[in-house]
UniProtKB/TrEMBL annotation:
SUPFAM superfamilies, sorted: FKBP-like (SSF54534), GreA transcript cleavage protein, N-terminal domain (SSF46557)
Task of the protein: Necessary for efficient RNA polymerase transcription elongation past template-encoded arresting sites. The arresting sites in DNA have the property of trapping a certain fraction of elongating RNA polymerases that pass through, resulting in locked ternary complexes. Cleavage of the nascent transcript by cleavage factors such as GreA or GreB allows the resumption of elongation from the new 3'terminus. GreB releases sequences of up to 9 nucleotides in length.
NCBIfam families recorded: PRK01885.1
Matching Pfam families: GreA_GreB (PF01272), GreA_GreB_N (PF03449)
KW Transcription (keyword) present: yes
Every Transcription elongation factor GreA/GreB C-terminal domain range: 85-157
InterPro entries: GreA/GreB_C_sf, Tscrpt_elong_fac_GreA/B, Tscrpt_elong_fac_GreA/B_C, Tscrpt_elong_fac_GreA/B_fam, Tscrpt_elong_fac_GreA/B_N, Tscrpt_elong_fac_GreA/B_N_sf, Tscrpt_elong_fac_GreB
Lineage of producing organism: Bacteria, Pseudomonadati, Pseudomonadota, Alphaproteobacteria, Sphingomonadales
Keywords of the record: DNA-binding, Elongation factor, Protein biosynthesis, Transcription, Transcription regulation
The protein's name in its UniProt record: Transcription elongation factor GreB
Keyword Lipid biosynthesis: no
Family: Belongs to the GreA/GreB family. GreB subfamily.
Organism of derivation: Sphingomonas hengshuiensis
Any GO BP annotation: regulation of DNA-templated transcription elongation
Length: 158
C-alpha cells in the first residue's frame, strides 16, 4: 500500500466490530452446520454443505480483507487537529457551488466513506480538492458530470 489508510476511531471500531461478528459469531455457526451436513452422506447434492462452503469462503475473504485494512490503518482523531482553520482529515466542511447549492461534507477514511450521509473518502477527488483549503477559498473539483467550483463556507471539527 503506497499511502496510509487514514481512519477515524469510530471507523476503526466499526471495522473491528464487523471482524469480531464474523469471526466470533457467524463463522463458527457456519462451520458447525457444514460439519453436520458433511456427516449426512452424499455431499454432491447436499445444499447445506454446498452453500455453507460457499458462504464460508465469502466470510474468509471478507475476514482477510478486514484484517489487512485494520493492519494498515492509521487511526487519526479529528478532535485533536491543531490547525482548525484549514480543511484536513476529519473536517466537516460546508461548500457552495456556482448555483449557490450548499452541501455539508465530512472528510473520513476511504473505508468509512458513504456519500449518502455526506461522508467523503479522504482520497476521493472531492476530498483531494478540498485538502488544505481555508474559509472563502474556491476550489475546482473534477466530477464525473464535469468540472465544478465550490467555495468553502464553513470548517468545523468534532
Amino acid at each position: 500500500m503506497d499511502r496510509p489508510n487514514y481512519i477515524t476511531p469510530s471507523g476503526y471500531s466499526a471495522l473491528k466490530a464487523e471482524y469480531d461478528a464474523l469471526f466470533g459469531g457467524e463463522r463458527p455457526k457456519l462451520v458447525e452446520t457444514i460439519s453436520w451436513a458433511a456427516g449426512n452422506g452424499d455431499r454432491s447434492e447436499n445444499g447445506d454443505y454446498i452453500y455453507g462452503r460457499k458462504r464460508l469462503r465469502e466470510i474468509d475473504r471478507r475476514l482477510g480483507w478486514l484484517s489487512r485494512r485494520m493492519k494498515a490503518a492509521k487511526v487519526v482523531d479529528p478532535a485533536q487537529q491543531p490547525d482548525r482553520s484549514r480543511v484536513y482529515f476529519g473536517a466537516t466542511v460546508t461548500v457552495a457551488d456556482e448555483d449557490d447549492n450548499q452541501r455539508v461534507l465530512t472528510l473520513v477514511g476511504d473505508d468509512e466513506a458513504e456519500a449518502g450521509t455526506g461522508h467523503v473518502g479522504w482520497n476521493s477527488p472531492f476530498a483531494r480538492a478540498l485538502r488544505g483549503a481555508t474559509l472563502g477559498d474556491v476550489r475546482r473539483v473534477t466530477l464525473p458530470g464535469g468540472e465544478r467550483e465550490y467555495e468553502i463556507l464553513a470548517i468545523s471539527y468534532p
